[in-house]
Structure formats: structure tokens, C-alpha cells
Specification:
Length: 353
């Protein structure tokens, strides 16, 4: 059996890469990261390509594709260090809303790009001592930290019991938070007796949305690491020392070869995790945990080594390698660190209480 991408999937990936190569040069990433240009400038173009509706059924105006297709898109977005709300508004929120049911109008609005839905899963994934909220009689009070997408129209909020609530951004106080990754915005949400619509009490809805998000993060890291590797190889073919290209030095060859050897098997792992979400219900949660955990460690190694190949230039904004470096670093912690995910995988397999 040959496991690979179909012709349609290859065309999808090519179209996304072509659009981002033309419309998102590094200078544009810089402007969005510094706030000079809103991330909606890129998101609107991706909306025209159908990206917000990837996982939304055709009946609600979406494209109705599968998780593997979404993983392919996520890899391309990571490769171009694309700013925007893809993880929250195109993956986690649509998965949860579709599984919960009764949210057809909102799904249609997400698919056509007229609404963005952020997520605040901190209480369910990794509660913090300085945050927390309560929900009573349809009202929510308290605080969520590191909610994804500071520009969302609504937020899907999870409590400690994995219940999901929909809260309008108009009813909360938002404060932007600084993280190492300036290409994706996060914020603090303060609720003061705000309206909270119950979306789901089913823990399986939350888990599938979380697994989808983790798999897409792994794909994003794969793309970002591949881009850093490609940039390192290209730089080594141009940079000269002692009247020789540094690519001719054995040490540099070994560094690049190690990166390739570690990263290339990860592509099949990401594809299989996406396939498992679509077709293998008994494996999907375990694969999501292991794939994100492994990709974050490999991605970190590639990020470090590719920066070393660039030497001192790797730390400059002129080269801009730090955008990919920080993207990989943020992915490592978001929705669960490798250590946390491996502990979760051990529990799934019965190896830990």
C-alpha cells in the first residue's frame, strides 16, 4: 500500500503555497507582527480560498474536507509563518460547533469569513492560579488567560469539566497579551456576568476539538521547521568563509543532514495523525498526543540547528529567522507541552493512573 497525498490534496497544497508566496513576503509578516497591518489582510485572501470552511459541512457553506486535508493546509501556513486565526477559527471552533449541533448559522458565518471564533481552553487544558471563572444561570464571571485570537467576534470557552460555552466578544473585556510568537494574537478575557450560551456538556466534543487542534499544531511546526531547514541550506550555499562556501564544510553538511534525517519521518507521522482523526477512532487521540509531542521536540532541534548554520545572521531581524523559531517555541507549549502530552498518552494506554 502506498500512503501519500492524492492529486486533489497536492493541488490544494500547491494553491495555498502559491498564494502565500505571492501575498505574504517576510516584510508583510513583519508589518502584521508589529501591528502596522491587521492579520485580516491575509485572512481575507485565505477566506476566498475556502480555508475557514475546510472542516465545515457543505450544507453550512463550507468545503467539507477532512482532517488530513486540513493538516496539509496547516503545514503550508506554518511554512510561510502565516499570521491569523486558523487554529482557533478554522479548526478547533468548527469541529466543536459541528459536533455539538445547533450552531448552523454560526458555522455558515465562519465559513464565509464574516465571523471569527476564538478559543479559551486554559481551564480545561492547563489551569492557572491567577485565572478561572464560574458559570451560573447562563452568566459567566471571572477570567481566562491566553485566549487565542484577540480579534475574534466570539469565544468558545471551556471550563474545568470540559463544558463548552459561547461568549460574545462584545460582552467581555479584552487585553492583548505578549508572547514570543507575534504572528498569532492572544488575550486575557475578563467576564463580568456576561451571557454564556451552553454549546456542549459532552466531554468527547471537547476532546475531538482538542485533538484536531493538537494535530494541526504538529503540522504547523512541521511546516515551520521545513522552512527553517530550507533557509539554512540556501544560506549555506551562498555564505563564504575562507574563500569557500560554508556548504562545503563537513560540519555544516552533518548539521543539515541531521535536520533532514530527523524531520522527514515526521511528515508521515503528521499525515497518519490526520488520517487517524478521519478514519481510526481508536487511535486518533493517542496519535494526536504523540504527534504533537514528537514534532515539538524535533522542531525545536531543527530551529536551533538552522539558526546555528546562519551564524550571527540567524539572530537578526534582517534574516527574520526568529519568526519561525518563535512560532515553533509557542507551538510547543500551546494546548499541552510534550511532557504533558506523553503523560496523557500513558493514561490513555493504561500505563499511568
Amino acid at each position: 500500500m502506498e500512503f501519500g497525498l492524492s492529486e486533489e490534496q497536492t493541488l490544494l497544497q500547491d494553491s495555498i503555497n502559491r498564494y502565500l508566496s505571492e501575498e505574504l513576503p517576510l516584510d508583510q509578516v513583519r508589518k502584521i507582527a508589529t501591528g502596522d497591518v491587521p492579520d485580516s489582510s491575509v485572512w481575507q485572501g485565505l477566506t476566498e480560498l475556502g480555508i475557514p470552511g475546510l472542516l465545515i459541512p457543505e450544507a453550512q457553506g463550507g468545503v467539507g474536507l477532512g482532517y488530513l486535508d486540513a493538516a496539509i493546509v496547516s503545514e503550508s501556513l506554518g511554512y510561510h509563518v502565516t499570521p491569523g486565526p486558523f487554529l482557533a477559527s478554522a479548526i478547533i471552533a468548527p469541529v466543536a460547533l459541528n459536533l455539538a449541533g445547533g450552531q448552523e448559522a454560526l458555522l455558515s458565518s465562519i465559513a464565509d469569513g464574516s465571523r471569527r471564533v476564538g478559543i479559551a481552553f486554559g481551564e480545561a487544558v492547563g489551569a492557572r492560579a491567577d485565572a478561572g471563572f464560574t458559570v451560573a444561570d447562563g452568566k459567566i464571571s471571572g477570567k481566562s488567560l491566553f485566549a487565542l485570537d484577540s480579534n475574534a467576534d466570539d469565544y468558545l470557552v471551556a471550563d474545568a469539566d470540559c463544558n463548552l460555552y459561547l461568549v460574545s466578544a462584545a460582552d467581555v473585556k479584552r487585553t492583548n497579551l505578549s508572547t514570543v510568537d507575534m504572528t498569532r494574537s492572544t488575550c486575557e478575557l475578563v467576564y463580568d456576568n456576561a451571557e454564556a450560551t451552553l454549546v456542549s456538556r459532552d466531554v468527547n466534543v471537547f476532546i475531538e476539538a482538542l485533538d484536531a487542534g493538537r494535530t494541526m499544531q504538529a503540522a504547523d511546526t512541521l511546516g515551520a521547521a521545513q522552512s527553517m531547514l530550507d533557509q539554512a541550506v540556501a544560506y549555506s550555499m551562498q555564505r563564504e568563509q575562507f574563500d569557500r562556501l560554508i556548504a562545503s564544510f563537513q560540519a555544516v553538511k552533518h548539521m543539515c543532514a541531521d535536520m533532514v534525517a530527523n524531520l522527514e519521518p515526521c511528515r508521515a507521522m503528521v499525515w497518519y495523525a490526520g488520517h487517524a482523526l478521519d478514519e481510526l477512532p481508536d487511535e486518533k487521540r493517542l496519535m494526536a498526543c504523540h504527534t504533537k509531542a514528537h514534532l515539538q521536540e524535533v522542531g525545536q532541534q531543527v530551529a536551533k540547528t538552522s539558526t546555528e548554520v546562519h551564524g550571527g545572521m540567524g539572530f537578526t531581524d534582517l534574516v527574520g529567522l526568529h519568526y519561525w523559531f518563535k512560532r515553533i517555541g509557542a507551538n510547543r507549549q500551546l494546548l499541552g507541552s510534550p511532557e504533558m502530552l506523553r503523560e496523557e498518552a500513558a493514561r490513555i494506554q493504561g500505563f499511568a493512573a
